[in-house]
Amino acid sequence: MSKHMTNILVPLISILLGLIVGAIVMSLSGFSPIDGYIALWNGVFGDSYNLGETIRQITPYIFAGLAVAFAFRTGLFNIGVEGQLIVGWLAAAYVGYAFDLPKIIHIPLALLAAAVAGGLWAFVPGLLKAKLQVHEVIVTIMMNYIALHVVNASIATLSDGAEKTEKIHESASLRSPFLESITDYSRLHWGIIVAIIAVFVMWFLLEKTTRGFELKAVGFNQDASEYAGMNVGKNIILAMVISGIFAGLGGAMEALGTFGNISKLTGFTGIGFDGIAVALLGANQPFGVLLGAILFGSLKNGGLNMPNEAGIPMEIVSIVTALIIFFVASGYIIRVTLERLSKKKKEEK
Amino acid sequence: MDYVIEMLGIRKQFGDFVANDNITLQLKKGEIHALLGENGAGKSTLMNVLFGLYQPEAGTIKVHGKEVKISDPNKANDFGIGMVHQHFMLVENFTVTENIILGNEPTKMGLVNIRDAAKKVQALSEKYGLNVDANAKIEDISVGMQQRVEILKTLYRGADILIFDEPTASLTPQEITELMQIMKRLIDEGKSIILITHKLKEIMEVSDRVTIIRKGKGIGTVVTADTNPDQLAEMMVGRQVVFKTEKQQAHPTDIVLNIENLTVADNRGIDKVKRLNLTVRAGEIVGIAGIDGNGQSELVEAITGLRKVKQGTVTLKGKNITGLKPRKIMESGIGHIPQDRHKHGLVLDFPIGHNIVLQTYYQKPISKAGIIDYKKVNEIAKRIITEFDVRTPNEMTLARSLSGGNQQKAIIGREIDRDPDLLIAALPTRGLDVGAIEFIHKRLIEQRDKGKAVLLISFELDEVMNVSDRIAVIHDGSIIDIVKPSETNEQELGLLMAGQSLHHDQKKVGDE
After folding, report:
1. Which of A210, A306, B99, B191 has the most CB atoms in a 10 Å sphere around its CB?
2. CA B85 to CA B201: how far, in whole Å?
3. Which of B419, B442, B477 is the last residue of a domain?
4. In terms of domains, do B21 and B117 share one?
């Protein structure tokens, strides 16, 4: 079997296997898998509203995935994307309502605020790792909790004890009457364009720039990088900050696009953690992350339609979507099996 | 015929690549039979076939004259074949005995019977003069002793035929001598040995016969006593090999590197380099001879800025470079072939081309306005790959997938191409075969002849003697003597390396 064929076959077989096992789960629970999958399909592509909502859902996943993938590519495990994302969300929301500026300045300023907030939140674990060799996983997990409670406390302070901040001004909004009108009044906003630009930025940064060369080298081998004259500590901090910037921008998408404000969070949004899976599905490649985010966003949004249209409880829906993701992620197993099979065939010949 | 093992016409293929093509090896009872070949010639494949890890496509294996099929390593054990691996397979925090019985634990009422096993191990150790403490933990014993544990492991399992895979690769000269004696002892006790190696000196010293393979093909078997290193090298490489690299008299000129009173501590804070003084002039190669662990690594790291200098100064062409950042030191004109090419020399997961620009990626013409011109990178990489004969499919191949020799050639190419005034070569030929060694020595001498200074650090006496113009002997962090290769010999160097000052001894003799 040619390598090219395997590359196409593996994801297809993975998704198919996921669907089959998901169907078994639905059947065993007494629901029709066919109705279930039709509902899933409709939830993703069924009409322009659902399509718009799906694309909206994909947007923050792209940022979260890029954040995790960037860290992985530079030798770091940023499990704190969640926290960086929610501080970015708050920062963008605040700038969105606290200032009155022309749109051309206001949107970039709000995005910048989110980037700075996310970057700062990641700077702390980066600094601790570079200077004191504290493992970034521990620090970023703790920073998530700090972010959650700091953000909730800030919302209370900023809104005089209310549950959510004011709505952002029109001049800071990424929402667009045009996008809403073509998608039957979904919440689709221009954020998807920003996200796709971010995909290219990550690719350019890693594959074209001098800094990217250094960041990757340090990620792979700190000793050799030091030998080659690179400043290892500086690169670790920078890698973490850039990862945090992607995460913070993901939060800005929710503030400036989907919700227009930030409400008190009862728990983590989960987007940051899903970002780990998105990054791994995408093999930590920027364009792979885009595909991973599309899969995640589609299943998430399509899944919402399954209780309505097919009467399948949300719990079963979660199991089914998780199974599909599980099989895609275990593409490695399928790849190995395929190779074994083709090898055996050769030997029989 | 009293062959204990016969491998006849063995062929092993991986995809389209033929690793072993019609190779025959016959081991007599009670002999040390060397299996000689360059890195990648197919020695390990052949032995893995014998050990049951690979199944051959053609050929037969006979044990004690009977044709057998060795389907897995357990089968090989049953036939009395044991392998002493190059990379030890030991659990660090287990004792010697625990490691030996691992996977085959003797039990008494469901509990591991460690005491009897330890007794048996101790007895075996004494019988073969291995001098191993059965109750010592692996992490507490030396590399040489760990290897003897591996030998014990095979003996404990009843092996009569021992395969040694590159056994001297990580040993000190003393440990090598000890190993040779152990091998002879094993033969006296009725064992037979296959010795896989590419070191000719060892073959000449211990083996009875040699089978040579080259690029997967059997070249032939010769009796060691009837051959010589030159002939063996030629059979192995396929052309004549020059051992003693030809070189003219050195013409040293200005001082390039001047080290004064240098003290450097290791990671634990213990002084490893102690008030060391050394100069290297342009147009000469200074070799640092010494036993591993006498401060060589710390010295090199201090010169190149990778380790803090506690005291003293390092001057390069009259400029004080003590305590500068590694990049600044490099830019002032130092090239460094690091001791550990996997740890420091290469980013193994980078393409070899990226590795070739590992120190120059930020400079013009490779990088402009923060953007790397990868076309230029590939151009430079291709040139160095050709100039230094790095055998790789192309410049985008990952460094990890090249052989050690080719990785080293790429590093040397990279360092020499930067045209440094001082080239530091730390163990530049470690683990390489004669062909690659010859190449590297030539390049070092070429640098010298171009009027550059070269500092060579080596544990191999041959190398120091052949390549250097002056030999500085390091012991316990200080240079205890500087000698000329033409005025010394291995015995004298050996004594110096062990810390005995010659002048002192002579004086003493005179006094009495």
Report:
1. A306
2. 20
3. B419
4. yes
Report whether pLDDT(A341) > 60. yes
Residues B297 and B431 in one domain: yes
Q: Kindly indicate whether the ipTM for this predicted assembly is greater than 0.90, answering yes or no.
A: no
Residue B472: give the domain boundaries.
252-333+420-512
For strand B422-426 and strand B334-337, is the pairing parallel, antiparallel, or unpaired?
parallel
> pLDDT, tens digit, for every residue of A185-200?
889 899 999 999 999 9
* CB distance B411 to B363 below 8 Å: no
The answer to whether residues B45 and B118 belong to one domain is: yes
Q: Which residues of A touch B336 (CB under 8 A)?
A: 227
Which phi and psi (to 5°) does residue B302 adopt?
-70, -40
Nearest alpha-carbon partner for B415 in B388, B449, B445: B388
**What is the least distance, in Å, from the CA of B337 to any CA of chain A?**
10
Burial of A49 (0-12, 13-18, 19+ CB in 10 A): middle
Q: Is B256 exposed, middle or buried (0-12, 13-18, 19+ CB in 10 A)?
A: buried
Q: Over the stretch A207-225, which tens digit does the pLDDT of each residue have?
A: 999 999 999 999 999 999 9
Query: Which residue in the block uniquely carries the two structure tokens 């053609």?
Result: B58
Mutation target vs A (from B300, B303, B340, B358; most A CBs, 10 A cutoff): B358
End-to-end CA distance of chain B: 61
Find tokens 């640092």 and name the residue. Answer: B288
d(CA A124, CA A240): 9
Is the residue at B242 inside a domain? no
- Please indicate, yes or no, if residue B245 is contained in any of the structural domains: no
The answer to whether the CB of B300 falls within 8 A of the CB of B477 is no
Sheet of B422-426: strand order equals B334-337, B422-426, B453-458, B285-289, B470-475, B478-483
Number of compact structural domains in chain B: 3
Are residues B316 and B424 part of one domain? yes
B354 near A CB under 8 A: yes
Please check whether residues B45 and B84 belong to one and the same domain. yes
Q: Cβ of A227 and B362 within 8 Å?
A: no
Task: Decide: B7 and B14 in contact? Cβ < 8 Å.
Answer: no
- Residue B88 main-chain phi, psi, to 5 deg: -60, 140
Last residue of a domain, one of B374, B397, B419: B419
> Chain B within 8 Å of A116 (Cβ-Cβ)?
no
Question: Domain residue spans in chain A?
Answer: 56-288
Task: Report the predicted TM-score, pTM, of the whole model to 2 decimal places.
Answer: 0.78
Q: How far is CA B179 from the centre of its chain?
A: 16
Residue A261, both tokens: 């404000």
pLDDT tens profile A50-82: 899 999 999 999 999 999 999 999 999 999 999
In eight-state DSSP terms, residue B55 is: -
B453-481 tens-digit pLDDT: 999 999 888 888 889 999 999 988 999 99
Looking at the domain assignment, is residue B338 inside a domain?
A: no
Chain A residues 196-215 with CB within 8 Å of chain B: 208-214
Q: In this structure, are B24 and B82 located in the same domain?
A: yes
Three-state DSSP state, A311 = coil
Nearest to B248 by CA among B285, B281, B279, B277: B285
User: For residues A178 and A225, what is the distance between their CA atoms, to the nearest angstrom?
Assistant: 50
Contact between A214 and B348 using a beta-carbon 8 Å cutoff: no
**Mean pLDDT value across chain A:** 90
Q: In whole angstroms, what is the distance from residue B347 CA to residue B400 CA?
A: 8
Q: Are residues B233 and B262 in the same domain?
A: no
**Do B98 and B226 fall into the same domain?**
yes
B89 against A291, higher pLDDT: A291
Tens digits of residue pLDDT in A108-133: 999 999 999 999 999 999 999 999 99
- Say if the Cβ atoms of B348 and A228 lie within 8 Å: no
**Contact criterion met (CB below 8 Å) for B264 and B272:** yes
C-alpha–C-alpha distance, residues A10 and A7, integer Å: 6
